[in-house]
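WP5 quarterly update. Target: Squalene synthase HpnD. Source organism: Streptomyces luteoverticillatus. Length: 316 aa.
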Amino acid sequence: MSRDVTGTPQTSPPVLAAYSYCEAVTGQQAGNFSYGIRLLPTAKRRAMSALYAFSRRIDDIGDGTLDPESKRLRLEDARTTLDRIRAGDIDEDDTDPVAVALAHAVRRFPIPIGGLDELIDGVQMDVRGETYETWDELAHYCRCVAGAIGRLSLGIFGTVPGARDAARAPEYADTLGLALQLTNILRDVREDAANGRTYLPSEDLAKFGCSAGFHSALPPAGADFTGLVHFEVRRARALFAEGMKLLPMLDRRSGACVAAMSGIYRRLLERIAEEPTAVLRGRVSLPGHEKALVAVRGLSGYDARSVHRQTARGRV
Ligand SMILES: CC(C)=CCC/C(C)=C/CC/C(C)=C/COP(=O)(O)OP(=O)(O)O
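Structure tokens (predicted):
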């Protein structure tokens, strides 16, 4: 590894190009998460982009139009890439920029890369068309596809020296991932139903008369769809409140990144709570200026405090 006059390791041109590729993928595709990632200092921002680009690839295999067997094979290829990264087998001249960037990030930060195997396990559950009877079963899926991303990200953020309760940081990062994923599931209920997928626990659907599913812009006849959404919103709020205990353990810019990511999704959740049937008509989203505002507030610590205030008032 080459170093500059101060002895700081230099990142080689091929690795820089690989990171640029991942940052472009993040900028183009991470409609919500890019606001937070942009707040990080360079090395962490690049590492988060590598993580995002690899995760996006896995997700896209699951969501794509290939037949299940081809998806399975593509996911196994991704697992092989992870094995090669673990074995130190990816050099900077490799033709896959995402693998080059991720391999560099894994050398630089203590990223628990097994989390990406969990992500692949979760997407394989999707490919097999698994459904979930209970919240515990759905939580296991969410832990694979989102909790793992929280724990992987924590490897990049690190915790500040002397942080109280730092041993619990991975647990909180995992819980925040669950909060985000449950919000995502509520937001995408219609799109997933159109693709033949239902993530919400069947015992919850039954409780609110929604077992027949929701394939149109109208709530199912006789179902308490609003009651179902409010039930899941309460669960997601509690997960956010628990997961946000991570924030005081992070340095300012990592905290800002997490506050922005969580803050944007937390607002989405409240938008859904205000008008549950909106998710049956289309994808609920925030305008760009609102996401930017949440991100800026994250940088000043505003949203973190506001979440704590809401928790203290018993809002969750
Ligand atoms: C500690 C920490 C950083 C925790 C957060 C972990 C995290 C970022 C989990 C991702 C979960 C999620 C909802 C992915 C959806 O991606 P998508 O591409 O479908 O999202 P979009 O459609 O909203 O853009």
